[in-house]
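Co-fold these.
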Amino acid sequence: MAGLYIHVPFCKTVCKYCDFYKTSNVLLQDLYIQSLLKEIEKSEFFFSDFPVRTIYFGGGTPSLISSKNLDLIFEKLSRYLDFSKIEEITLEINPDDFNASFVSALKNTPVNRLSFGVQSIYDDILKYLGRRHNSLQIFESLELANSSGYNNVTVDLIYGIPGLSNDAWIKTLEVMFQNPFTHLSAYHLIIEKNTVFYNEWIQKRLVEVDESFSSFQYNYLVDYLKQKQFQQYEVSNFSLSGCESRHNSLYWSGEEYLGLGPSAHSYFNNTRRWNVSDVGEYNRQLMKNEDCYTDELLTETDLYNELIMLGLRTVKGVSLTKLKQCGDSYYSYFMNKSIPFFNENLLIVEGDYCFLRNESLFLSDGVIEKLFLAK
Ligand code: SF4
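Predicted complex below.
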């Protein structure tokens, strides 16, 4: 099983915490689409060698793609892929783009899963984050998705935001659960380099939240979602049974994927490759029929580190069979380094999988770091 990721690099405005590749020059969309169609053509080898079962449109803001351009993308993809075999096609949506005319454009496509960038239910926090939607648009768009027959819906939330009290986070979850959705991703606000928040942090105009807020809000999230029958299957991801993201699960279990569009990453044949992070350069290279990526053959150590990093963030854990496939020395290294975590009952082995106890998933970064191998 393999996945296809398509990066749509346009945002009307830039959120203050965002370090994804994007441009606010939305006028470049038609040219980008022509380049993307070219890149799809150049990827025929992948479509014939790997069984693509999921497609994910991420960004940027995929809900800015015009109806005409959405049709062009799916028409081109249909030459290489049999959509009856694609299990999940997700499109990320900014709530203020989602209206009746967008739904009617979407209905012409095989998209069957919608991902709403909600982030917060409070207008002052949304403004603080630099988001362009408001809370009313969140609730209206989720209702419209539901009444339009989209019942595989995920929402993204952010916690650990300066100014977001614990009570406000509790209320966020209560209010969100009055709306229809089947999957929720919640991420702690991270101050990334090259963002507005980073500059404010350097200038001491922004202070990160205290660790006690972070852990309260995360633990409350995990407990609350359990009560709502949302199962946690990754550090930041929760869903009703059967509604897990197949596309993201494919990344975490080390399956192959192809990324198209500027800055998109791919992984196949033990090779990692990444496209140029500049839409102008991306367009130029593809129009000249040149490759728009750099690639690197992964070493056994890289593959071992990837397995640990991705697997231990999931409830399922890391496959011992796959670890052994990296080589006996890697497997022994992992087992030896894990002894303290086994003794503390943080790490558990059951059948073919080694995983962190659910309550310890929040600590996964620290554990993973200790199990990593230097290159
Ligand atoms: S968070 Fe999303 S919408 Fe905001 S700037 Fe980044 S890619 Fe664009």
